[in-house]
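ok trying again, last paste got cut off:
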Amino acid sequence: MIVSTASLYLSISQVVFLGIGAFVLMRNSHMGRLFVALSACILIHLLALLFEVGPGSVTSFFLSTVLKIIPITVWLVAFSLFEGGRKVPRIFFKVMAIYLLLAEIGLLHFHFSFIPRFNLSQYMLFYIAPQLICIGAYIYVLRLAVLEYRQDLVEGRKSLRIIFVLVIGGFWLFQALRILIRLVVLAGWEDAKDLETFVNSITGILLFPVVLVVNICFLRAFASIAKVENHAGRQLGEEALPYLIDSRDLELKETLLNYMEWKRPYCRSGLTIGRLANEMGVQEYKLRTIVNRILNYNNFSQFLNKYRIRDAEFRLLKTDDAVFNIGLDVGYTSLSTFHKAFKECHGITPKEFRIVNRTGSNGKSESLRVQVNERDQLSTV
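nice, full thing came through this time. structure:
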């Protein structure tokens, strides 16, 4: 990649500021440490470009390995930021292990001469395949950023979602284009080499402006989600200033809770906080404030899931309705989404929950029956 010295120096300065900002504002959080690690990896890569570390040495091999770690760090940052305390799926670690293994073999071949020359199929496996896995990871990051945008109740994090979509989406398109051009070159089209050089040059020119924009946007967002608490079930970010609760807020909170309890709007799939605000005749920003600041939910989907899972528990223990029908009735769009939400809450599937708690095979059974019976009595009042 052709990058000017001035662009590299300016980019390095911005990455340093980004790392310092993450450390100062978010150093006590898991997400903050991930941002610092990401900044460090990018900084090492930029320094390698600045000092023109060429292939054929242990140092260059190490620096290239650090570069391969960047997509993993980006994925972990996005997951920590947008998934609100959920555990990272095991499949991610398996896929990333395969990615690193293939990429490291490719790096060994590129940096050292003791590995025989690759044929086309080996080149595809050890060079192209890792890059395709990278693109897949970036697509998943885009999915995380876009999927819950409207349901996100933390304004600073909503801004970060937009940044992720623009920056990661743009980077993914460039990577996909570079891979496509590289494949065309390998296929024997010599004229594509000039196009490959041009794309690499454009990437180098855009390096500093992109890093600058990312730095400004991220630091502004950090200020609004500082003092991050990344524990399961807890809010990801707290505002720097405490929110003052007045009597009208408490009245609206009680109105919301009563509306959810008796009107059961959560049973409609696709319910958004905007639609709920319209139904209740209140302003959306006020409802967001109540759910986020007073009830301590980062995400409107988390708030809905509380009611949906509780309703599903009741139906699973008190009726013989099919699990699929119960999931649809309480507002989920498919059996897989119902299973995923239920398992995150209880650690078991809805079917297993029904079997375990109806047979009384664990200590929770009696307390769950009591809760269900109490709700049954309330519903008949």
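cool. Residues 232 and 273 are 23 Å apart (CA to CA). Residues 227-242, 361-381 have pLDDT under 50 and may be disordered.
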